[in-house]
Write a structure and sequence with these properties.
The complex is a heterodimer of chains A (286) and B (314).
Chain A: E1 32-34, E2 41-43, H1 44-49, H2 65-72, E3 79-80, E4 86-87, H3 96-107, E5 113-120, E6 123-130, H4 141-157, E7 161-167, H5 175-194, E8 199-207, H6 209-212, E9 221-224, H7 235-242, H8 253-258, E10 264-265, H9 268-281
Parallel strand pairs in A: 6-7, 7-8, 8-9, 9-10
Antiparallel strand pairs in A: 1-2, 3-5, 5-6
Helix pairs in contact in A: 4-5
Chain B: H1 2-25, H2 30-49, H3 53-60, H4 68-75, E1 77-81, E2 94-101, E3 104-111, H5 117-123, H6 130-145, E4 150-156, H7 163-167, H8 170-182, E5 188-197, H9 198-202, E6 209-213, E7 217-219, H10 223-231, H11 237-244, H12 248-253, E8 259-261, H13 272-291, H14 295-307, E9 312-313
Parallel strand pairs in B: 3-4, 4-5, 5-6, 5-7, 6-8
Antiparallel strand pairs in B: 1-2, 2-3
Helix pairs in contact in B: 1-2, 4-13, 6-8, 10-11
Classes of the chains: A alpha/beta (286), B alpha/beta (314).
């Protein structure tokens, strides 16, 4: 009977190509919240003061871009790029404009990524932070353009880049334009790479589809938060394709580490200092 | 469209019977035959000038549609297939190797679908694993080393979705190709010959020239996948195809591809020789257009080509 109180809200629409049903990214407006992983009841304030990590089991709840920036960037150092890039509807997709304005309202963001410069432990860096609360962090023209411009700016200013990815993949409503953002962002990373500059990719829950298959997997160093879902195809698509149940822990950060696909798993509590350390290490030119 | 095609094929059969009858009995029916032939051509022309996007999806997937190897054998000479990614294993869903085009060496790479069930099992229905993309990249780097242009044939429903593919980094393999192709120091021509499905297609698609056959499609996801995500109903693929803007003509109007290669009446499978000739013309023309650029210009132009794609307001 008690179960009814914590009934999960049904996930209605998703823009993500390859991912469905995220483990409740939205913290409801209550005082208490049930942990998605251990199902313990957590006092919301405790969760927030604990960087949105469950104090019982260590489950990492999803963060908004703003929360992530507050966590990682030195206070008062962030300068945002390209706040005024707005999404159009190149395919004349029914109700797309409406959907975008709803998402802007809901997520309090203009699009699914925030970019800019800021300091991490005193190190000047170009930073891009995606937000899965905005149309599942899907990549359309604006996300692709903002990431590309941020990386180009870093190349120009000889700065490192840190990108926090979280995305369901390419944005369906912009069709082929979304697909081409994968090539565009990857090409920008190539130019940054040619200059001998550092790119750290941080994978957070969930990172799938076209974002995994472009800039997210191209870091010189790839870090991930514990327990994050990371993959090319979403688990549902794979299950449907191969018609068998997926093994426990499949496509989680730990699985990727085991298969040699990422460099290290860093708990949120140590993320900032780890990034600071890596950025500092790459300043020393041998 | 398929209904019309069935009717036309029925008519063609009758025509054959008529011809046979005429030969056998020495009756001169040439006037009648000619008139029926003209009628068939006219009907077909009309049918094919009004194809819906979904019709084109079906044509692009037609089981008789020429595959990469069909074209490679007809367009190039001296093809030598090269296998393997030097790391995990050979992926038969992508073929690649060296050949000559009018006497000049080129590297040719393409998705490879099968003709029948047995071959499709070997080829995994043209859906590559990471090792397929890594083989493709290996051959591209080899082409760069030996200053050969790269010709890519795109024809896949998408990169394979499975446990092994994920374990070996499907996302990384595709991403790496996008990055390396964007700076490969040799010309790249990509031609979508059938289905251009998602990142698995794009991983052979970062070219200096991108062409699409007249009835080919190129999309962010298959219409089935698109319908499944947006409407939770993959059976609405036809509706999805109508709004996704996936035809060669759509992509031409978006300036995402450079040119549309016309197909023989009824589609590429109706006249493979003619289709190959036509593709060959485009490859030669494309190479001529990019060949006299310096490598720096070539790479910068390739960068700019993808850099400018995106629709937004600032």
């Amino acid at each position: 009977m008690l179960k009814g109180f914590f009934k999960k809200t049904k996930y209605v629409t998703t823009s993500s190509p390859l991912y469905e049903k995220p483990p409740t990214p939205n913290i409801p407006d209550g005082m208490w919240i049930k942990c998605t992983a251990c199902e313990q009841i957590v006092y919301k304030k405790d969760l927030e003061s604990n960087k949105k990590v469950c104090p019982h089991c260590g489950y990492h709840f999803r963060m908004t871009a703003r929360e992530r920036m507050d966590l990682i960037i030195d206070e008062g150092t962030f300068r945002e790029f390209n706040q005024n890039l707005f999404t159009l509807n190149p395919l004349s997709f029914p109700n797309y404009e409406k959907k975008i304005s709803e998402q802007q309202e809901k997520a309090k963001l203009s699009e699914a990524v925030v970019t800019g410069t800021g300091k991490i432990c005193g190190e000047e860096t170009v930073i891009a932070v995606m937000d899965s609360h905005f149309l599942m962090g899907s990549m359309g023209s604006v996300v692709g353009e903002k990431i590309t411009r941020a990386v180009e700016e870093a190349t120009k200013r000889k700065l490192p880049v840190v990108i926090f990815s979280t995305s369901g993949g390419a944005r369906m409503q912009e069709g082929i334009f979304s697909l081409m953002q994968m090539a565009k962002t990857s090409a920008a990373i190539a130019k940054h790479d040619e200059e001998g500059l550092l790119y750290i990719s941080v994978l957070t829950d969930p990172t799938t589809g076209g974002v995994t298959a472009s800039f997210a997997m191209l870091g010189d160093i790839i870090l991930a938060e514990p327990g994050a879902l990371i993959g090319f195809a979403g688990p549902r698509v794979i299950e449907q394709t191969i018609k068998q149940k997926l093994p426990e822990g499949f496509q989680k950060s730990e699985f990727l580490l085991e298969h040699g696909l990422i460099d290290e798993i860093i708990p949120r509590d140590h993320l900032k200092e780890t990034l600071g350390k890596l950025l500092r290490l790459h300043k020393e030119v041998g | 469209m398929t209904d019309i095609e069935k009717n036309l094929e029925e008519l063609e059969k009758q025509l054959e019977a008529l011809k046979e009858f005429s030969n056998l009995h020495g009756v001169d029916l040439s006037k009648e035959i000619k008139s029926i032939e003209d009628k068939i051509t006219e009907l077909r022309k009309e049918a094919y000038s009004n194809l819906s996007p979904w019709d084109k999806v079906n044509l692009a997937r037609h089981s008789g549609r020429p595959t990469s190897l069909d074209y490679i054998g007809r367009i190039f000479e001296d093809f030598i297939e090269l296998h393997g990614d030097r790391s995990f294993r050979e992926d038969f869903a992508i073929v690649g190797g060296i050949a000559t085009l009018e006497g000049h060496p080129v590297t040719v790479i393409g998705h490879q679908k099968g003709r029948d069930t047995k071959e499709n099992i070997k080829r995994n229905f043209g859906m590559p694993h990471p090792e397929g993309y890594r083989k493709a990249l290996r051959l591209m780097k080899q082409a760069e080393k030996f200053h050969r242009p790269v010709i890519c044939f795109i024809d896949t429903a998408g990169a394979f979705c499975g446990i092994g593919a994920e374990e070996r980094g499907q996302g990384e393999a595709i991403a790496r190709n996008l990055l390396e192709m964007s700076r490969l120091k040799t010309p790249i021509i990509s031609i979508v010959i059938g289905e251009g499905g998602s990142g698995g297609a794009l991983a052979l698609g970062v070219g200096d020239k991108i062409y699409m056959l007249e009835y080919a499609v190129y999309s962010v996801l298959s219409p089935e996948g698109f319908a499944a995500i947006l409407w939770k109903d993959s059976s609405k693929a036809k509706e999805a195809a109508e709004i996704m803007k996936i035809t060669a003509q759509d992509l031409m109007s978006f300036k995402i591809i450079d040119e549309v290669v016309p197909e023989p009446l009824g589609g590429a499978h109706k006249d493979m020789e003619k289709m190959s000739e036509e593709i060959k013309k485009y490859i030669i023309k494309g190479l001529k257009e990019v060949r006299n650029q310096s490598i720096e210009d070539l790479i910068q132009n390739r960068y700019d080509k993808f850099r400018k794609i995106g629709e937004y307001q600032s």
